[in-house]
Known about the structure:
The complex is a heterodimer. Chain A is mostly helical. Chain A has helices spanning 12-21, 32-61, 69-72, 85-109, 113-144, 158-189, 192-196, 200-225; strands at residues 75-77, 80-82. In chain A, a hairpin with a 2-residue loop joins β1 and β2 (80-82). Chain B is mainly alpha-helical.
Amino acid sequence: MSQFDISKLPQGGKGFMHDWGSDQRAFKGVPWGKAMMWIFLVSDTFIFSCFLISLMTARASTTVPWPYASEVFALTVFGVEVPLLLIAIMTFVLITSSGTMAIAVKFGYEKRRKLCALFLLFTALGGLAFVGMQAFEWTKLIVEEGIRPWENPYGAHQFGGFFFMITGFHGLHVSIGVIYLSTVAWRVFAGRYERLDDYQIVEVMGLYWHFVDLVWIFIFAFFYLW
Amino acid sequence: MEPNKPFIHPSYYPGETPEAEHPLSLYMSVWILLFVLSAFSYMVDYMNVEGYLRAFLITIFAFLKAGLVVGVFMHMAWERMALIYAITLPPLFLLALVGILSVDGAFVYYIRDLFMSVTAS
Protein backbone atom coordinates (compact mmCIF):
# COMPACT_ATOMS: atom_id res chain seq x y z
CA MET A 1 0.00 0.00 0.00
CA SER A 2 1.42 3.30 -1.01
CA GLN A 3 2.11 5.82 1.66
CA PHE A 4 -0.03 8.85 1.28
CA ASP A 5 0.51 12.14 3.04
CA ILE A 6 -2.80 13.83 3.73
CA SER A 7 -1.13 17.01 4.88
CA LYS A 8 -0.04 17.70 1.27
CA LEU A 9 -3.65 18.06 0.07
CA PRO A 10 -5.23 21.52 -0.10
CA GLN A 11 -6.76 22.73 3.15
CA GLY A 12 -9.92 24.58 4.17
CA GLY A 13 -12.46 25.64 1.54
CA LYS A 14 -10.11 24.68 -1.26
CA GLY A 15 -9.74 21.26 0.36
CA PHE A 16 -13.54 20.91 0.43
CA MET A 17 -13.71 21.56 -3.34
CA HIS A 18 -10.76 19.23 -3.98
CA ASP A 19 -12.06 16.33 -1.89
CA TRP A 20 -15.63 16.41 -3.19
CA GLY A 21 -14.44 17.06 -6.74
CA SER A 22 -12.09 14.05 -6.86
CA ASP A 23 -13.74 10.96 -8.23
CA GLN A 24 -12.60 8.35 -5.73
CA ARG A 25 -13.48 9.16 -2.16
CA ALA A 26 -14.71 12.35 -0.62
CA PHE A 27 -13.75 11.79 3.00
CA LYS A 28 -10.00 11.56 2.73
CA GLY A 29 -8.16 10.10 5.65
CA VAL A 30 -11.45 9.04 7.24
CA PRO A 31 -11.92 5.29 7.72
CA TRP A 32 -15.26 4.05 6.41
CA GLY A 33 -16.46 3.06 9.89
CA LYS A 34 -16.05 6.59 11.12
CA ALA A 35 -17.70 8.14 8.05
CA MET A 36 -20.65 5.77 8.35
CA MET A 37 -21.03 6.50 12.06
CA TRP A 38 -21.10 10.23 11.31
CA ILE A 39 -23.75 9.72 8.63
CA PHE A 40 -25.81 7.60 11.01
CA LEU A 41 -25.52 10.34 13.61
CA VAL A 42 -26.78 12.93 11.13
CA SER A 43 -29.87 10.78 10.52
CA ASP A 44 -30.33 10.36 14.27
CA THR A 45 -30.03 14.13 14.64
CA PHE A 46 -33.01 14.46 12.34
CA ILE A 47 -35.05 11.97 14.37
CA PHE A 48 -34.42 13.72 17.67
CA SER A 49 -34.90 17.13 16.08
CA CYS A 50 -38.29 16.03 14.75
CA PHE A 51 -39.27 15.04 18.30
CA LEU A 52 -38.14 18.35 19.75
CA ILE A 53 -39.70 20.39 16.95
CA SER A 54 -43.00 18.52 17.43
CA LEU A 55 -42.73 19.42 21.10
CA MET A 56 -42.33 23.05 20.08
CA THR A 57 -45.43 22.81 17.85
CA ALA A 58 -47.49 21.15 20.59
CA ARG A 59 -46.53 23.82 23.08
CA ALA A 60 -47.20 26.63 20.60
CA SER A 61 -50.62 25.29 19.63
CA THR A 62 -52.10 24.25 22.98
CA THR A 63 -54.50 26.64 24.68
CA VAL A 64 -54.13 24.75 27.99
CA PRO A 65 -51.12 25.78 30.13
CA TRP A 66 -48.08 23.55 29.74
CA PRO A 67 -46.95 21.78 32.95
CA TYR A 68 -44.09 23.59 34.66
CA ALA A 69 -41.23 21.07 34.39
CA SER A 70 -39.35 22.74 37.20
CA GLU A 71 -42.11 21.69 39.62
CA VAL A 72 -43.00 18.34 38.06
CA PHE A 73 -39.40 17.14 38.30
CA ALA A 74 -38.62 18.60 41.72
CA LEU A 75 -37.20 16.29 44.38
CA THR A 76 -37.70 16.80 48.08
CA VAL A 77 -34.40 16.47 49.94
CA PHE A 78 -34.44 16.83 53.74
CA GLY A 79 -37.78 18.59 53.54
CA VAL A 80 -36.60 21.14 50.98
CA GLU A 81 -37.99 21.01 47.46
CA VAL A 82 -35.13 21.33 44.97
CA PRO A 83 -36.24 21.86 41.35
CA LEU A 84 -34.84 19.49 38.73
CA LEU A 85 -32.35 17.95 41.18
CA LEU A 86 -32.38 14.48 39.66
CA ILE A 87 -32.10 15.92 36.15
CA ALA A 88 -29.10 17.99 37.24
CA ILE A 89 -27.40 14.88 38.64
CA MET A 90 -28.22 12.93 35.46
CA THR A 91 -26.70 15.72 33.37
CA PHE A 92 -23.59 15.65 35.57
CA VAL A 93 -23.25 11.88 35.20
CA LEU A 94 -23.69 11.93 31.41
CA ILE A 95 -21.20 14.76 30.90
CA THR A 96 -18.72 12.94 33.10
CA SER A 97 -19.12 9.75 31.09
CA SER A 98 -18.58 11.78 27.93
CA GLY A 99 -15.34 13.09 29.42
CA THR A 100 -14.11 9.60 30.34
CA MET A 101 -15.01 8.46 26.82
CA ALA A 102 -12.87 11.22 25.28
CA ILE A 103 -9.99 10.16 27.53
CA ALA A 104 -10.51 6.49 26.56
CA VAL A 105 -10.20 7.45 22.88
CA LYS A 106 -6.98 9.31 23.66
CA PHE A 107 -5.54 6.29 25.50
CA GLY A 108 -6.64 4.11 22.60
CA TYR A 109 -4.58 6.15 20.17
CA GLU A 110 -1.64 6.00 22.55
CA LYS A 111 -2.15 2.21 22.53
CA ARG A 112 -2.37 2.03 26.31
CA ARG A 113 -4.61 -1.02 26.36
CA LYS A 114 -5.50 -1.30 30.04
CA LEU A 115 -6.11 2.40 30.65
CA CYS A 116 -8.29 2.54 27.54
CA ALA A 117 -10.38 -0.43 28.73
CA LEU A 118 -10.63 1.05 32.23
CA PHE A 119 -11.95 4.38 31.00
CA LEU A 120 -14.39 2.62 28.67
CA LEU A 121 -15.61 0.73 31.74
CA PHE A 122 -16.05 4.01 33.65
CA THR A 123 -18.04 5.35 30.71
CA ALA A 124 -20.28 2.27 30.66
CA LEU A 125 -20.84 2.58 34.42
CA GLY A 126 -21.81 6.23 33.96
CA GLY A 127 -24.31 5.21 31.30
CA LEU A 128 -25.69 2.50 33.54
CA ALA A 129 -26.10 4.99 36.40
CA PHE A 130 -27.90 7.34 34.02
CA VAL A 131 -30.36 4.65 32.89
CA GLY A 132 -30.91 3.65 36.53
CA MET A 133 -31.79 7.21 37.50
CA GLN A 134 -34.06 7.49 34.51
CA ALA A 135 -35.88 4.32 35.59
CA PHE A 136 -36.30 5.89 39.04
CA GLU A 137 -37.62 9.10 37.48
CA TRP A 138 -40.12 7.25 35.30
CA THR A 139 -41.34 5.15 38.23
CA LYS A 140 -41.82 8.26 40.37
CA LEU A 141 -43.69 10.06 37.62
CA ILE A 142 -45.94 7.15 36.75
CA VAL A 143 -46.67 5.83 40.26
CA GLU A 144 -46.59 8.94 42.44
CA GLU A 145 -47.42 11.82 40.12
CA GLY A 146 -49.91 9.96 37.94
CA ILE A 147 -48.44 11.12 34.63
CA ARG A 148 -49.66 9.11 31.64
CA PRO A 149 -49.00 9.58 27.92
CA TRP A 150 -52.65 10.63 27.53
CA GLU A 151 -53.24 12.68 30.66
CA ASN A 152 -51.59 14.26 33.68
CA PRO A 153 -52.70 16.37 36.61
CA TYR A 154 -50.40 19.32 35.83
CA GLY A 155 -51.74 20.80 32.60
CA ALA A 156 -51.71 20.09 28.87
CA HIS A 157 -52.20 16.37 28.27
CA GLN A 158 -49.64 16.18 25.48
CA PHE A 159 -46.92 16.62 28.11
CA GLY A 160 -46.85 12.94 29.13
CA GLY A 161 -46.69 11.65 25.58
CA PHE A 162 -43.78 13.91 24.72
CA PHE A 163 -41.98 13.14 27.96
CA PHE A 164 -42.13 9.36 27.56
CA MET A 165 -41.38 9.46 23.85
CA ILE A 166 -38.38 11.78 24.00
CA THR A 167 -36.71 10.56 27.19
CA GLY A 168 -37.62 6.97 26.34
CA PHE A 169 -35.96 7.14 22.94
CA HIS A 170 -32.93 8.81 24.47
CA GLY A 171 -32.83 6.20 27.26
CA LEU A 172 -32.92 3.48 24.60
CA HIS A 173 -29.89 5.10 22.96
CA VAL A 174 -28.07 5.16 26.29
CA SER A 175 -28.93 1.50 26.95
CA ILE A 176 -27.70 0.44 23.51
CA GLY A 177 -24.60 2.56 24.14
CA VAL A 178 -23.91 0.73 27.41
CA ILE A 179 -24.06 -2.64 25.63
CA TYR A 180 -21.87 -1.31 22.80
CA LEU A 181 -19.41 0.18 25.32
CA SER A 182 -19.17 -3.04 27.32
CA THR A 183 -18.46 -5.02 24.17
CA VAL A 184 -15.75 -2.62 23.02
CA ALA A 185 -14.27 -2.39 26.53
CA TRP A 186 -14.02 -6.17 26.69
CA ARG A 187 -12.42 -6.37 23.26
CA VAL A 188 -9.91 -3.66 24.14
CA PHE A 189 -9.05 -5.45 27.37
CA ALA A 190 -8.73 -8.81 25.60
CA GLY A 191 -6.18 -7.19 23.26
CA ARG A 192 -8.15 -7.58 20.04
CA TYR A 193 -7.35 -4.08 18.82
CA GLU A 194 -3.77 -4.32 20.00
CA ARG A 195 -3.30 -7.36 17.75
CA LEU A 196 -4.91 -5.48 14.87
CA ASP A 197 -2.82 -2.43 15.80
CA ASP A 198 -5.91 -0.34 15.20
CA TYR A 199 -7.99 1.42 17.84
CA GLN A 200 -10.32 3.14 15.34
CA ILE A 201 -13.31 1.24 16.77
CA VAL A 202 -12.85 3.07 20.07
CA GLU A 203 -13.12 6.41 18.32
CA VAL A 204 -16.19 5.33 16.33
CA MET A 205 -17.77 4.10 19.55
CA GLY A 206 -16.83 7.43 21.13
CA LEU A 207 -18.69 9.35 18.41
CA TYR A 208 -21.86 7.44 19.26
CA TRP A 209 -21.46 8.03 22.99
CA HIS A 210 -20.75 11.74 22.64
CA PHE A 211 -23.82 12.02 20.44
CA VAL A 212 -25.95 10.54 23.23
CA ASP A 213 -24.54 13.25 25.51
CA LEU A 214 -25.21 15.85 22.82
CA VAL A 215 -28.86 14.85 22.52
CA TRP A 216 -29.22 15.03 26.28
CA ILE A 217 -27.90 18.61 26.23
CA PHE A 218 -30.76 19.58 23.93
CA ILE A 219 -33.38 17.56 25.82
CA PHE A 220 -32.22 19.20 29.05
CA ALA A 221 -32.49 22.63 27.45
CA PHE A 222 -35.66 22.30 25.41
CA PHE A 223 -37.71 19.84 27.44
CA TYR A 224 -36.75 20.41 31.06
CA LEU A 225 -35.69 24.03 31.15
CA TRP A 226 -37.65 25.81 28.40
CA MET B 1 5.28 2.70 -13.51
CA GLU B 2 5.31 -1.08 -13.51
CA PRO B 3 2.96 -2.47 -16.18
CA ASN B 4 1.23 -5.09 -14.00
CA LYS B 5 0.46 -2.82 -11.13
CA PRO B 6 -2.95 -1.16 -11.44
CA PHE B 7 -2.89 2.54 -10.99
CA ILE B 8 -4.69 3.59 -7.85
CA HIS B 9 -4.89 7.21 -6.93
CA PRO B 10 -2.89 7.80 -3.75
CA SER B 11 -5.82 9.54 -2.10
CA TYR B 12 -7.73 6.25 -2.17
CA TYR B 13 -5.68 4.99 0.73
CA PRO B 14 -6.16 6.59 4.07
CA GLY B 15 -2.60 5.56 4.90
CA GLU B 16 -1.19 7.03 8.04
CA THR B 17 -3.74 9.50 9.28
CA PRO B 18 -1.99 12.06 11.42
CA GLU B 19 -3.56 11.63 14.85
CA ALA B 20 -3.48 14.93 16.60
CA GLU B 21 -1.82 14.51 19.97
CA HIS B 22 -4.06 16.14 22.51
CA PRO B 23 -2.91 16.62 26.06
CA LEU B 24 -5.15 15.27 28.81
CA SER B 25 -5.55 18.82 30.07
CA LEU B 26 -7.52 19.74 26.93
CA TYR B 27 -10.19 17.15 27.70
CA MET B 28 -10.20 18.03 31.38
CA SER B 29 -10.71 21.73 30.69
CA VAL B 30 -13.53 21.05 28.22
CA TRP B 31 -15.09 18.73 30.79
CA ILE B 32 -14.98 21.45 33.45
CA LEU B 33 -16.30 24.01 30.97
CA LEU B 34 -19.25 21.72 30.24
CA PHE B 35 -20.00 21.52 33.95
CA VAL B 36 -19.85 25.28 34.31
CA LEU B 37 -22.16 25.81 31.32
CA SER B 38 -24.59 23.17 32.66
CA ALA B 39 -24.53 24.92 36.03
CA PHE B 40 -25.31 28.21 34.27
CA SER B 41 -28.32 26.75 32.47
CA TYR B 42 -29.47 25.17 35.73
CA MET B 43 -29.13 28.58 37.43
CA VAL B 44 -31.39 30.10 34.76
CA ASP B 45 -34.12 27.81 36.07
CA TYR B 46 -33.17 28.10 39.75
CA MET B 47 -33.21 31.90 39.67
CA ASN B 48 -36.53 31.94 37.78
CA VAL B 49 -35.35 33.94 34.78
CA GLU B 50 -38.44 34.27 32.60
CA GLY B 51 -39.52 35.23 29.09
CA TYR B 52 -37.25 35.84 26.13
CA LEU B 53 -34.15 36.14 28.29
CA ARG B 54 -34.74 32.62 29.62
CA ALA B 55 -35.20 31.19 26.11
CA PHE B 56 -32.15 33.06 24.86
CA LEU B 57 -29.86 31.99 27.71
CA ILE B 58 -30.96 28.34 27.59
CA THR B 59 -30.41 28.17 23.82
CA ILE B 60 -27.03 29.89 23.98
CA PHE B 61 -25.74 27.58 26.72
CA ALA B 62 -27.05 24.48 24.92
CA PHE B 63 -25.35 25.42 21.66
CA LEU B 64 -22.10 26.35 23.40
CA LYS B 65 -22.05 22.94 25.08
CA ALA B 66 -22.93 21.23 21.80
CA GLY B 67 -20.09 23.07 20.09
CA LEU B 68 -17.60 21.91 22.70
CA VAL B 69 -18.77 18.29 22.54
CA VAL B 70 -18.77 18.13 18.73
CA GLY B 71 -15.61 20.18 18.24
CA VAL B 72 -13.32 18.73 20.89
CA PHE B 73 -14.77 15.44 22.18
CA MET B 74 -15.85 14.28 18.72
CA HIS B 75 -12.66 15.74 17.15
CA MET B 76 -14.63 17.67 14.54
CA ALA B 77 -12.28 20.64 14.91
CA TRP B 78 -9.46 18.52 13.46
CA GLU B 79 -11.40 16.98 10.57
CA ARG B 80 -11.15 18.09 6.96
CA MET B 81 -13.66 20.58 5.61
CA ALA B 82 -15.29 17.93 3.36
CA LEU B 83 -16.50 15.98 6.41
CA ILE B 84 -17.32 19.05 8.50
CA TYR B 85 -19.64 20.46 5.83
CA ALA B 86 -21.23 17.07 5.07
CA ILE B 87 -22.18 16.67 8.74
CA THR B 88 -22.99 20.18 9.87
CA LEU B 89 -24.81 21.68 6.87
CA PRO B 90 -27.75 19.22 6.44
CA PRO B 91 -29.14 19.90 9.96
CA LEU B 92 -29.56 23.56 8.94
CA PHE B 93 -32.65 22.43 6.99
CA LEU B 94 -34.23 21.93 10.40
CA LEU B 95 -34.40 25.70 10.75
CA ALA B 96 -36.94 25.69 7.90
CA LEU B 97 -38.99 23.10 9.82
CA VAL B 98 -38.82 25.25 12.96
CA GLY B 99 -39.98 28.27 10.98
CA ILE B 100 -42.86 26.49 9.22
CA LEU B 101 -44.10 24.79 12.37
CA SER B 102 -43.96 27.88 14.55
CA VAL B 103 -46.23 29.61 12.02
CA ASP B 104 -48.47 26.53 11.97
CA GLY B 105 -48.48 26.24 15.77
CA ALA B 106 -49.53 29.86 16.14
CA PHE B 107 -52.30 29.35 13.58
CA VAL B 108 -53.63 26.22 15.33
CA TYR B 109 -53.56 28.12 18.62
CA TYR B 110 -55.59 30.91 17.03
CA ILE B 111 -58.16 28.46 15.61
CA ARG B 112 -58.50 26.57 18.89
CA ASP B 113 -58.87 29.78 20.82
CA LEU B 114 -61.52 31.01 18.38
CA PHE B 115 -63.39 27.68 18.41
CA MET B 116 -63.44 27.49 22.19
CA SER B 117 -64.66 31.05 22.58
CA VAL B 118 -67.47 30.28 20.11
CA THR B 119 -68.51 27.01 21.75
CA ALA B 120 -68.32 28.44 25.24
CA SER B 121 -70.97 31.10 24.60
